[in-house]
Amino acid sequence: MRAYNRKLQFGWMGWLDYSGGEMTNWGAHGLDQIQWALGMDGTGPVELWPLEGGPKDAIAFRYANGVTVHLDLPPGNLMGGGRFVGEKGSIDIWRNNFKIDAPGVQLDLPPQEEIDKWHDKRALWQAQYHMKHWLDCIPGRKTPNADVEIGHRSVSLGHLANITRRLNRKLHWDPKKEQFTGDKEADLLANRPRRKGYELPKV
What region does 83 belong to: left with phi over 0, alpha with psi -120 to 50, or beta? Predict the structure, then answer.
């Protein structure tokens, strides 16, 4: 047991014993969108490493298909989102909004009504549309847009980023086994002893 003081600036999120900080809070939202856009909802990267010469704690990771993601934007940029850079321009996505910079490219956008529905000015923090979708899936036993496995993979990536920052070296990850390859120290950080009565079930 550890002492806990909720008056601290970040509350329980500021304690490594309780949380992964903002990386597993806001970070999970942005990483969720990035993995979804890349078609990587059900997996994770195979390599992660610190980036030199960028903002503090900047890292990069690579998926098995060769796509590389950099977590190197300064704090306060694209809260809960990401930037995709292609040959003809870029797309920024963040909570309830997006921006496209692709001069001369014809875009097939959804109707303005659909865009406005999700915009902060209207949606704010409400989860109305997410909840409705989830409830609509129940009678037919359909898989929701963001099921428990997707949530697990999104926040797992946040923990992997934290471990990479903490060890400050390249790490190799097996997303099928959900273990580091050839790195016992990293594996120890991917799990922790649990108090009696709070153990994970054996599968």
Answer: beta
